Amino acid sequence: xxxxxxxxxxxxxxxxxxxxxxxxxxxxxxxxxxxxxxxxxxxxxxxxxxxxxxxxxxxxxxxxxxxxxxxxxxxxxxxxxxxxxxxxxxxxxxxxxxxxxxxxxxxxxxxxxxxxxxxxxxxxxxxxxxxxxxxxxxxxxxxxxxxxxxxxxxxxxxxxxxxxxxxxxxxxxxxxxxxxxxxxxxxxxxxxxxxxxxxxxxxxxxxxxxxxxxxxxxxxxxxxxxxxxxxxxxxxxxxxxxxxxxxxxxxxxxxxxxxxxxxxx
Length: 265
What we know:
Layout: E1 6-8, E2 15-17, H1 27-47, E3 54-59, H2 69-87, E4 91-99, E5 105-113, H3 123-130, E6 135-139, H4 146-155, E7 157-158, E8 176-177, E9 192-194, H5 209-215, E10 225-231, E11 240-246, H6 249-264
Antiparallel strand pairs: 1-2, 3-5, 3-6, 4-5, 4-9, 7-8, 10-11
């Protein structure tokens, strides 16, 4: 990066102008949000798998619309201080902001104890600690798809529940716009934050697929998620495909344990 408006390709020396996103309608804004949620999904998968040491909290505001993300982050810091005092535990978290169709913000927190001890907080205690409006506390069940579930929850729009109400009566048929909520996020908004302690960054490995499968005993497993798309290059170059696969190491570990039991039997 040379300046706020220019960047240089360090391999070719070419200087190009930076594309500044100024509108939600800008296709680059959508691409940027998709990339952000992709990183968030991997971050969640690295740190949360469900169990008694983890909770999912939702924080809302009683006045509507509440459209100031700085206020949400400030209120959240005070909330966390009260919650740590209330529980007497060291807590790690990922906070994600969710915009509603009305413009109001909700805060969603994935929370866990750093020592993996049981975490239980009554809904009423969380409401008093938050002090801004309605709250919801849920237990994260053991699951391989927490990241995928939350990404759908935070990016899709339910047309039967545009205001994100938790008390709204369930409709017989859901009308979901996949990825529709991406258009509600303000430009350049910081979508998520994490605690300084207890949250690990995803490990990135560069190797052949066969080597990584062997290292983590993934041979023979089907991917939990698969996506393929084509890259079309300029100047009449041949296009190429990129394939993405997600595997569950928990399933691999379970398979190894079952095989060990069968061998003993």
